[in-house]
Write a structure and sequence with these properties.
The termini are far apart. It is built from two helices and 26 strands. A hairpin with a 2-residue loop joins strand 15 and strand 16. By secondary structure, the chain is mainly beta.
Amino acid sequence: MTEIADIITAVRTLEGAGFEVRRPFPSRALPTLGPFILFDHMGPTLLAPGQALGAPIHPHAGLETLTLLLEGGGRHMDSLGNVSITGPGDIQWMRAGRGIVHDEGPTQDMLRNGGRMHGVQLWLNMPGAHKSDPPDYRHIRAEDIPQMAEAGATLRLIAGTLGGHTGPLVTHSAPFLVHVQLKAGRSVSILLDPLHATGAYVLSGQFGIGSSKTSLRDGELACLKDGESEFVCEALDGDAEFLVLGGPVIDDSLVRYGPFVANSEAHMAETVQAYQSGRFGEVSGT
């Protein structure tokens, strides 16, 4: 039937060098959703030449970042020496682990010519036993993401399992993430793990959930009731685009401090000291 426990409206805030994002969590009402501890929705925005902004050199530790680019182009550089260019439909995954520094910005083409920019960045908590794992980075091309087509619906499985497919992103936090594009008047059903916390966020358009067709618009996140094993929705008043996300809750203590996540205040103090002493490395070539 798909029952909703709560509906969260994203708040607008500034990130990086000053670009606007919509953030459904963390908040007092919803600090986490399964293994996900932050959700930032960027755009869609039409940028004039010279307007594109990024997130200049900054550190992370104790978490993983997952960036899905829907429109536009992005450039990644990090203290491991990775350099990559992200295009529409691509995924960037970065494990911060014991510490990494990176620089995220628009491509030279976006800076020079402008264009539409649209994307999502998610942060994943890491189980306590893995928070000090070595950092890592992976660029997943759009063509390497399994795609399932139904009548009027296209589903891209980024992480988890669905319909006999497994998403290319596999991490210790075991996330589930599906990107769905749904034609007007069409419906889709997605099987869920009832042991997972799950939500659905509207990127654009409007859809109705379950038999009651509870309506959600862009910038709203529906938190499903515990134990839901199926997500059913129908696009209303035009096409809709959304994410279904969730996974098992990580029960370890969660201490946040800016871009760092730790298991305790003592662990956080060690993390900050490691960064300040230069042990996260440097981004070269900027």
